[in-house]
Amino acid sequence: MDFTFNSAQAHAALTLMLTIRLFESKIESLFSSHIMHGTTHLAIGQEAVHAGVSPALDREDWIVTTHRCHGHTLAKGASLKAAFAEFFGYSDGLAHGLGGSMHLVDVEHHNAGSSAVVGSGVPLATGMALQLKRKKSNQLVVALFGDGASSRGAVHESMNIASVMSLPVLFLCEHNMYGMSACAKDMVSVEYISDRGNAYAIESTVVDGNDVEQVYKAVSDAAHYIRSTGKPYLLETRTYRFSGHSKSDKRVYRTREEEVAWLKRDPIEMLKQRMLQRTYIDEKDFEKLGQNIQCEIDNIVDEMIDHPRQLSIEEAFSYVYSSKEHGQL
Amino acid sequence: MKKISCREAIREALFEEMARDQDVVLIGEDLGCYGGCFQVTAGLIERFGTHQVIETPVSEEAIVGVAVGAAMMGMRPIVEIMYGDFSTLASDPLINHAAKMRFLSAGKLSVPLVYRTPMGSGTGAAAQHTQSLESVFTNIPGLKIVYPSTPYDLKGLLKSAVRDPDPVLFFEHKLYGVEDLIPEEEYLIEIGKGDIKRQGADVSIITYGKTVFTAMEAARLLEADEISAEVLDVRTLRPLDTDLILQSVSKTGRAVVVHEAPTFGGFAGEIVATIVGDRRAFGALKVSVERVCGLEMPTPFNKHLELALQPSVERIVDTVTHMFTSSV
Questions:
Q1: Which terminus of chain A faces fewer neighbouring Cβ atoms within 10 Å, N or C?
Q2: Residue A238 is part of a domain; what is its CATH number?
Q3: ipTM of this model?
Q4: Mean pLDDT, range A225-230, rounded to an integer
Q5: Which of the residues of B are catalytic?
Q6: Mutating which of B21, B61, B66, B94 best tests the A interface, going by the most A Cβ atoms within 10 A?
Q7: pTM confidence score
Q8: Right CATH number for B2-182 from 2.40.40.10, 3.30.70.270, 3.30.420.270, 3.40.50.970?
């Protein structure tokens, strides 16, 4: 591989990936100890995609995420505090506690939020790109979706529209091998979803989604292509969801052997080994980095548990319509 | 004043709003040189070009999803879907996204979208091109729903819908050729306000869309029987002008709710509940509230059967007359 991170880029990526991993691990423990309610969809194991996508974009570029949105939300710039607060349903959360785990939105960082209807964010991202193009903006929109969503008609309709209208959309398939319990090999007609770009005359490629340097390079190249040609691009990243689909998943649909094989390709471990090799970091630094992040996370959560703050029902009504008088029809 | 058809009234509203603001953009199938399925958008692409008239592939779900996304970025899209029946395909972006974007972003994103589509039967187009699906959407907080009848209302309400910061579903009846007088000068009609189309003292016929014309004809016939019928066009289903409804029924003491959609689970039920849930209006009732709506059947192709399905002038007159013979 030609492209490698310099030391600063590698450190930034490692910090981000560890932050996302420890954030999600904390979420997992808060759910299993019944401190948090609702449901959540973890992406532990997919951090190389999170750290390879948003950091490779311009700050002004937009992302539209999925129900498995925690990592991308943090990578685009959301604060740990605002993210945790949303999980607690607090009024200082990203969506003031109205969205929860599946609806993390962060407009300030050009994260338009997620559709928790699998695949439905893709047409929205396409429309955002349409208006950006009309406004002669140089920004692009990343439409994130998984291998499960690749079967949705709306995704195919959107690719066709983006192609015929030449829209600045990066269709980014985060292929983690499973849509809930359904294995992609049983549900997706092609080996590589990127091959479907041909059907819509959209340029495409596939990269190792556990290799953050590869993802970063591929996203940078795709963004350059989109900005210089005005055309959409389809990028497939192949990764693996170490965690189950949601908090109640016992993972009966796959073998422990398969999981172990993928754990050997842990994206954080892969980056760490490279950084050790390149002497960007030593074992002690790595340990310290993890401890610092863990400490920050624990402090944030400890403070939050003790200080609940919630919107009143009247305040919640004020977000249904633009005008308050329509809030309670 | 000038005489204008429903089709021309809608087109004038589109023209004026597109000329006023370049971010007002038409999106839909065949609405360029073809002029749209019902010829409503004829001539607009020649005037405004492809920057403001965007023709799309046959992809209803994505078209509306694209419009939602574009609206989030500042566009004022007006999506045209050829037939209201295809709203089933557009329901995910409308119900799960347009209606919830402001809420789920705690007010940081909004969807100033207009969704235009024709509803209703009488065209011989059979079961998949003639439905009235408004009540599929009236139960969704976050949406506004407008269903005007006359050229005057169509123009004024469409212009308001385009300027509204919230997603507005703008349902049209298919009597596009019906003409009426409208002012020469520009005007707007506030969303959420009903209109008394005909003053009356003895019974309130409450309706919207195409059946406003049916109700007006019924009211004329009832006059011969010395029954003075008031025709109330609610014009907007959400938010509903409950004050006007309650005021009218409190005055007349009799209410008939009319719409083309089937009775069961239809919007008339909401209007009836509004009336009987109000102490003053309920107390004023001299007889039980009636509904004259579509029959519980997919629209048949056969013309005689198709007409039998709709709320007719005769059914309204019979229902009203019966209210007087049976009242105590």
A1: N
A2: 3.40.50.970
A3: 0.95
A4: 98
A5: 129
A6: B66
A7: 0.96
A8: 3.40.50.970
